[in-house]
Amino acid sequence: MEAEFWHERWSRGEIGFHQGEVNPLLAAHFEQLALEPGSRVFIPLCGKSLDMVWLLAQGYQVVGAELSELAVRELFETLDIQPEISSVGSLKHYQGEGVDIYVGDIFDLTRGVIGQVDAVYDRAAMVALPRELRVRYSSLLLALSYAPPQLLITYEYDQSAMAGPPFSVSAEEVNQHYSYHYQITCVESVEVLMKGKVTAIETVWLLM
Predict the structure, then answer these.
(1) d(C-alpha 94, C-alpha 22), whole Å
(2) Which residue intervals of the chain are DSSP H helices?
(3) What's the N-to-C CA distance of the chain in angstroms?
(4) Could you say which of 18, 32, 42, 111 is the most buried, measured as most Cβ atoms within 10 Å of its Cβ?
(5) Which CATH number does the domain 3-207 belong to among 1.10.510.10, 1.10.10.10, 3.40.50.150, 3.40.190.10?
(6) How far apart are CA 18 and CA 46, in angstroms?
């Protein structure tokens, strides 16, 4: 998707993808990643997700990437943290206790910039990208993070019945992206209604 599409969504408050509560699938399954306290969790295309608040409350550190600076400012307001803001190449770095968010194009991130990553939590990144970008995105994650454990959430539905995002990502595609590097396990699938009109299967994948 073009950057302007997402900037307009945030500026207009058209953020139906933002959940007003912690994702119950995160709370139910994150412990399966078996992380040590203080581990650093990367959340790509993080928005202002309350899932980051939950992760911080569990004693983890959070590092995120987000295109919208508005979303990141609102996240830090929610956290009641006054961030230190600096520039890293084309990106802005918002930093507070236990949290680092890089604002800009995720494809401008490098391993040297992002630092240590102990796990990845992808609730809304892969499904936000059209198919032609998902190969590039999954390759970027592997390059940034040395393939640490990952909790991935996807939707599968009839793409002809509704335009994304979120886009339909099949089990076959998840395997195409990650099976060379991970043992992939489906830990839960639930039926959901997308945008009030299309039935989809929401699936939680454990990549170890």
Answers:
(1) 22
(2) 3-12, 24-29, 50-57, 69-79, 111-114, 131-145, 171-178
(3) 29
(4) 42
(5) 3.40.50.150
(6) 10
